[in-house]
Design brief:
The complex is a heterotrimer. Chain A is mostly helical. Helices cover about 75% and strands about 5% of the residues of chain A. The chains are: A mainly alpha, B mainly alpha, C mainly alpha.
């Protein structure tokens, strides 16, 4: 263990294996001790400490890796003498940053969940899934080959399914899990197509070799065609996993899972996998600028679309779910405009403030005895002061109030959008910024202000939950410092750090640029404040009335997208399935088998007459056979 | 035509005749008797072929030991014609005879080639005595084929054990019952 | 010594074998079946001894010994089986042995 690579491989191995080991242990312990308090204590302390170990391992690597490094654990799949897929980790700025987010936020959420899930019969099971998720997510983040990324990709999808339908005794939850799983399969198909196409072109699936081959240039038109196919596949995969149009429909339903799950998987980490993947594969996309254009458009459209739905949701978690979709749309917008650092910056800040908001919502839900409808909340800021203040920071951050983190990262994206001179996208982005602050203000006001409209007396959550909220609130407030723009006297450290891996247009440093950026910042913060103010006046005295005009029905019903999908896809699939069942399975296959059976029954009714039981007759048959063989041998001579 | 050729043809004719009678006589004891005759004639054929030791073994083991076993069992069972079973009908018999004849023809077609029509060579002196003599056979048997010889012994042993198992019958219940109680024998007398 | 073609000896061997086989199928009692089996083995023996003579090689004669070993075993076991059959059925009619009937 004296050479740095060995230390690195040991540390990273520990980082990945601790959650896996945990996943094996907690299930067993949860089963072994049943529902006792001892098991809960062991599991919660164990899970949190395992996650903390994992976090510190990643942190150690982060601090000790100069540039990027690769650690290989063992050879996994060998294609031929030249190329093979190794079980290896690629440690570069991109993966280490995401790894820190995953393990850091993951640790906090584990701590929170140990309070939130207190007394649940599936306590051990819950932490098993959660740890398995973290392991898969680390695989996705660090693997140096697309095969490994795919393993993690499927792993997080599986864990997401497990956790959405965690309370599977209610059919609604089970259906939500199934929906998420099936919709994700469509995206995974895109990923698989991309993998096949890339393997066809380059004969390898290791990401560094792939990207090196792309950057070396000199590709034939045929290869470029396959790379375009691969990019399409990756975009499809990203839209599936990151809940973008047209595959976003699973994420709102995914809120059926426990709130820590929503915070960790469906806000902070898993859904950002698509952003991560597109950033990781940026050189491929740079060869296909029109696909980047499509990606930006998808992102912008998703952002405004989801935000407009979020305004009309009454379930506090549904609002946050659509908000997540909308913010992910922002990230894709940035990726599409070749601003991956801005996307990644927004990913990090979003992980902080959206986890904070979800956990805050969870705290409210916990305090109100599993009441999720905002119409039955209100006026609980006095009862739950810690939750109120932390959520306030989260709301201001996402609404873009300077100098909180959300302001900085969103402003960067708005800045890039502004300079792209694409009016549709600019309109989308600014409208979304306004809608975001409006629906977040609505959530904030409806939950914490006005009269209490609920049934149960609210109470503040335990300290393990509020402590996490405070930590996340501090992070949400200060995370903007990571990439504070140079124009305003910042250092843009994230930009410097990530530039080794991804390329992004450098900002100008002229006075004109300074004023233009100030102007933009002013507009975006004004927009944010305007949204919040409007929400304050609109909902301060909320007493149950809603938008009555018929035009709003379309928003309320989420543009009828679920109904359209149901009509266009699901029902047709069911019809095809029915036809296949009745036609192919029932008629062709069963008919064939029954036909075989009846023919052989009839034949054997005839043939059984040969079975006289007289062995001498059997012997005669043997003899005739022997005679025929003899004759055949003679005639062939 | 030499005297030995005449002898061969007459032996061959008699062997075939006795074989036919073995196959066609209905009663087992007749078949057995014709088979013994067939074996003696075959032994004579072997002498003509120069395999003297084989011919003696044919008489001693086949015609002697094995056939005595057959005859012994036939006499032991002492069957009356009803217990032999009915004879096969004419269609079945003629079908079987026809198939047999065809087989004979096809087999003969296989060997009716010019090089097999050449006459047998004269007997030469082998390394250990004349061909077919006891020295010659035993030299080869115990040198080259000693494993086959041993395994033949094992097979005989196994057959002995198998026959013992097959033919063994538990002593009748009555024999034991006499020792235990005298009253029971009256009730189930003759049952076993 | 005798000088006839080998094929004549083989014709004889085939003839004996075919008579044995015919008898095996025609006869309806188990004892005759065993006797015909011996006849078939005897036909095979004639072929072995003839080839031994043709090649001036003792291997054929040694095969003869192996065949009669097997014949002895087979007749002993077969007769034991027939005895058991007779004990059960009180006859040796092959029509009674039709448990294989489908």
């Amino acid at each position: 263990m004296d050479n740095p690579t060995e230390i690195l491989s040991f540390v990273m191995g520990a980082a990945a294996l601790m959650p896996l080991l945990g996943a094996c242990l907690w299930f067993w312990i949860g089963k072994k001790f049943g529902n006792e308090k001892v098991a809960e204590k062991i599991v919660s302390v164990g899970a949190v400490s395992f996650m903390a170990v994992s976090f510190f391992c990643v942190l150690y690597t982060f601090l000790n890796v100069e540039g990027s490094a690769r650690v290989t654990f063992f050879e996994w799949i060998r294609f031929n003498s030249k190329s093979a897929v190794n079980f290896a980790f690629l440690l570069d700025p991109l993966s280490l940053t995401l790894g820190l987010v995953v393990t850091g936020i993951g640790t906090l959420i584990h701590l929170y969940a140990s309070g939130y899930m207190h007394g649940d019969p599936g306590f051990g099971r819950f932490f098993t899934y959660l740890n398995l998720f973290v392991f898969s997510m680390l695989m996705l983040t660090f693997s140096d080959s697309l095969v490994g990324v795919f393993l993690g990709w499927e792993g997080v999808g599986l864990c997401s399914y497990f956790l959405i339908s965690f309370w599977f005794s209610e059919e609604e939850n089970a259906n939500a899990g199934k929906k998420a799983f099936i919709v994700n399969r469509i995206g995974d198909l895109g990923f698989l197509i991309a993998m096949c196409a890339l393997f066809k072109v380059f004969g390898t699936l290791n990401i560094p070799e792939l990207l090196a081959a792309v950057q070396a240039g000199s590709l034939t038109p045929d290869q470029l065609f396959w790379i375009k196919i691969a990019c399409f596949g990756l975009v499809l995969g990203a839209t599936g996993k990151s809940a973008q149009i047209p595959l976003y429909v699973w994420l709102p339903d995914a809120m059926a899972g426990p709130t820590p799950v929503s915070a960790l998987i469906h806000a902070a980490t898993m859904v950002t996998a698509g952003v991560y993947l597109t950033c990781r594969m940026q050189p491929l996309f740079l060869l296909n600028l029109e696909i980047l254009e499509i990606l930006a458009f998808i992102g912008g459209l998703t952002a405004i679309f989801a935000a407009s739905i979020a305004i009309f949701q009454n379930d506090i978690k549904k609002v946050l779910a659509y908000s997540t979709i909308s913010q992910l749309g922002f990230m894709f917008l940035a990726v599409g405009l070749i601003a991956p650092v801005a996307a990644f910056f927004h990913l990090i800040t979003h992980a902080c403030f959206k986890a904070l908001l979800f956990l805050g919502a969870g705290s409210v839900i916990h305090g109100l005895h599993h009441e999720q409808d905002m119409r039955h909340m209100g006026g609980i800021r006095k009862k739950m002061p810690l939750t109120f203040w932390t959520v306030t920071i989260g709301v201001f951050a996402i609404a873009g109030i300077p100098p909180l983190s959300g302001f900085v990262s969103k402003d960067e994206i708005l800045h890039f959008t502004w300079h792209s001179h694409r009016w549709w996208l600019i309109m989308f982005a600014f409208t979304t910024a306004f809608l975001t602050s409006f629906y977040m203000g609505r959530l904030w006001v409806m939950t914490f202000f006005g009269k209490f409209r609920g049934h149960h007396e609210a109470h503040e959550s335990p300290v393990s939950m509020t402590a996490v909220l405070i930590v996340l609130a501090i992070l949400s407030a200060i995370a903007g410092a990571l990439n504070w723009p140079e124009l305003w006297g910042g250092s843009e450290r994230l930009n410097e750090y990530l530039r080794a891996v991804v390329s992004q247009a450098a900002g100008e440093h002229t006075e004109e640029a300074f004023y233009s950026s100030l102007k933009l910042a002013g507009i975006s913060s004004l927009v944010g404040i305007a949204g919040l103010t409007l929400a304050w006046f609109r909902y301060r005295n909320f007493a149950g009335e809603e938008f009555k005009a018929p035009i709003f029905r379309i928003f309320k019903n989420k543009y009828y997208i679920d109904e359209i999908y149901d009509f266009a896809v699901v029902q047709n699939l069911k019809r095809i399935g029915y036809a296949l069942w009745k036609g192919v399975d029932g008629f062709v296959i069963d008919g064939f088998l029954n036909g075989c059976a009846s023919v052989s029954t009839k034949a054997s009714l005839r043939f059984r007459r040969l079975q006289t039981g007289m062995t001498q007759q059997y012997a005669l048959w043997v003899w005739i056979g022997f005679l025929l063989l003899l004759f055949g041998a003679w005639s062939l001579r | 035509m030499e005297i030995q050729q005449i002898l061969f043809f007459s032996f061959a004719a008699l062997i075939l005749l006795s074989a036919a009678l073995v196959a066609l006589r209905p009663r087992p004891i007749e078949s057995a008797m014709w088979l013994i005759l067939n074996f003696f004639l075959t032994a004579g054929l072997y002498i003509l072929l120069g395999s003297n030791f084989v011919s003696i073994i044919q008489v001693l083991v086949y015609a002697g030991a094995i056939m005595v076993l057959f005859v012994f069992v036939i006499l032991l069972l002492n069957l009356d014609p009803r217990e032999f079973g009915s004879e096969a009908g004419l269609p079945w018999t003629s079908l079987v005879m026809f198939i047999g004849f065809l087989t004979f023809i096809v087999l003969s077609l296989h060997v009716a080639t010019p090089e097999l029509m050449k006459k047998l060579p004269e007997i030469k002196e082998t390394g250990a005595g004349v061909f077919g003599s006891i020295e010659s056979i035993s030299m080869v048997l115990l040198k080259n084929y000693v494993w086959g010889f041993e395994i033949a012994g094992v097979i005989l042993l196994l057959a002995l054990i198998g026959v013992g198992l097959l033919a063994y019958r538990k002593p009748p219940v009555r024999a034991r019952a006499i020792h235990t109680s005298t009253t029971d024998t009256m009730k189930d007398g003759g049952a076993s | 010594m005798m000088s006839v073609p080998i094929s004549y000896l083989l014709f004889l061997s085939f003839g004996v074998f075919c008579f044995g086989a015919c008898g095996f199928l025609i006869r309806k009692n188990a004892l005759s079946l065993l006797i015909c089996l011996e006849l078939m083995l005897s036909g095979v023996n004639i072929a072995f001894v003839s080839f031994s003579r043709l090649h001036q090689n003792e291997a054929g004669n040694i095969l003869y010994f192996l065949v009669i070993t097997v014949a002895a075993c087979e007749s002993a076991v077969g007769l034991a089986l027939i005895l058991n059959f007779f004990r059960i059925k009180k006859n040796i009619r092959l029509e009674e042995a039709n448990a294989l009937e489908g």
